[in-house]
User: Fold Cytochrome P450 from Galdieria partita.
Amino acid sequence: MSFGLFVLFILLLFVIYLVRHNGWLGSKAGHPYPPICKGLPLIGSALEFGKNPLKFLQACRQRYGDVFTVLLPGRRMTFIFAPAQELRQSFFNGSPSLISFTAGVEPFTCRIFGMSKKDFSLAHRSLLTALRSELGAKHIPQLAQKLINQYLLSFRTVWGKESEGDAYHLLTKTLSDASLRVIFGDEFANASPSLFKDFVDFDDWFELAATPMLPHFLLRPFVTSRKRLLETISQNWKYAKNAPIYKLTEAYGNDGNVPSLLLTALWATWSNASSASFWTLIHILADEKVKVKVLAEVEQTCPLLLSSKTELSVEWIFSHLPFTAYCVSETLRLCASVVDIRKVLEPMQFREFTIRKGDYLCISPAASHRETTVFPKSEDFVPDRFQKLGTHPNALFDKDLFTFGGGFYKCPGQLFAMVEIVLLTALVFYLYDVQLVDPIPKMKESQAVGIKRPSCSCRIYYLWKRRLAGMEVI
Ligand code: HEM
Assistant:
């Protein structure tokens, strides 16, 4: 082949690549591909998306409409915006032969937690079923009782009687200690004292480490903390034999991958619920009227909540602490993940567009939760909006709220998460006088996945306000 022909051949390949990659041709069926927000050569929109994903997506939507594709290094992400019911139908309940949750989260399960692709997709359904049953309504009374005992212990050992402290640290530590003991068991928790610290380091680097094509050797703190976490879990998971999490390892059945599986479960248990409990407390503290309503409710309910005679069923908790639960739901509306993700397995139709095989199909819970037609004054914290509707605080997540995902793969920890945050919030307000010391921090703008973290610290002042049997040390 002459040199000229060779150059022509390369140019032809390049043009074919550009046409396919950028969707300049319509699909075979004649339906157009969605418009593309191209960004810069090679890195696409990585910089803008990475800086403030929500703002970037809202700007794209204004420019391109309800369906558009964003190019990121190694990833094409097609976003769809629509009323809740339409999104539930097309995204959460779409045909499994067309879109896949498992393939969508593989960049996390495999690249971050180190699970093998094959094992994960084979075992995924049974894992989900096992966890859903272990954390289901039937077990809540027992789990809730243990949570309360652990919270009371943390008030003695972590909070103390009176102090000023960083609210994020206080709530994260309290909730994490309690949920670890409840889900992984006391023996496992006692054997793993370094787990919390290593997890904080790991979680700080989580999102960067999920970036495709970014080599992990550049992220030394991430690699070190993950190694330590996996070592701790490998050595100690035998102690979790009597805990709910053990059912998961039985469903998985492959010893070699169990530590990675349990690290995934630990991340799911800790990461989102901790931030959610922080924002719930901070939002209530920042609004005097809301705080007064919460205080009235907890004064009435907490004596019963702390009585050993009460069976803490799901219905009991939500019917005795409805307003506190609406505060949690409203917090989860405001702080929801910017992106939820699936992978397109075969070309699929959404409205007039064809979405390509291989694209990540995405919705934005954070953007949907800010639709002013559904949520007037959408940036404000207004728990009354849900109370007026009368929808059960937990059932809101089957209607207009997407914080826990949806369809078959909906978060299996939803009920447990709601219960643990409601109980912690109620007890903090019942047992302490709490005040904000710092202004409310902004949410971390650059975070795309999971409940938003605060962008800076926020101190609270708290003072123990009552006598309680068994709490003499305080
Ligand atoms: C406020 C707290 C929480 C939030 C906002 C949250 C949110 C989510 C979301 C959005 C998903 C993906 C669902 C989808 O895309 O359809 C998910 C999956 C998951 N969540 Fe949660 N979650 C929370 C708490 C928990 C807790 C406490 C646990 C366990 C104790 C848990 C366990 C899991 C697991 C294991 C999965 C993966 C399911 C799978 O692989 O199919 N989550 N969660």
Q: What stands out?
A: The pocket of protoporphyrin IX containing FE is lined by residues 128, 131, 135, 183, 265, 268-269, 272-273, 276, 340, 403-406, 409-413, 416-417, 451 (CB under 6 Å). The chain has 19 helices and eleven strands.
